[in-house]
Amino acid sequence: MIEAIKRFYEQRISPAQTPAEDTLQHRLQLATAALLIEMAQEDNQRHSMEFQAIHDGIMEVFDLSPEETAEVIELADREAHEATDHFEFTRMINEQFDYEQKCRVVELLWRVCLADAEMDRYEEQLVRKIAELLHVEHKDFISAKLKVQRAYSTSGHLSDYDDYE
């Protein structure tokens, strides 16, 4: 993961001008996106709706341009394929995100899970596993699921998910 991050910075940002905080922010973006990509692939299919949910969620949460978001997702996709488990990503999120931010990650996972209007039992298990690794309480895990389901059932599109502030 570190090599991909280094390449990202060498290509986009001068390392001499990048504060450590920016580096950490980009690492968190990659870790979050990698978890979302794992979620999208849990049912062994790559649905465009799920990847659109990843793109929209990363762009919203981290306030990135569409181009920056696409680059983060591309890097995270490679990192997700190289990862042996979810711990390296959840550890970073646990160290840097407060509880509310972790709940937002769980909401993003639900957005990806429900983007194709189908929830496979393995997808639900993965959201549960990641929520547990992030130390998100069960009530907040369920609340995030219901919030996303309501938004989806109201609009019919997760891209219309404006209750995410």
From TrEMBL:
Which Gene3D superfamilies does the entry mention?
TerB-like
Domain Co-chaperone DjlA N-terminal, first and last residues per copy: 29-145
Q: What is this protein called?
A: Co-chaperone DjlA N-terminal domain-containing protein
Species name for this entry? Sediminicurvatus halobius
- Supply the source organism's classification: Bacteria, Pseudomonadati, Pseudomonadota, Gammaproteobacteria, Chromatiales
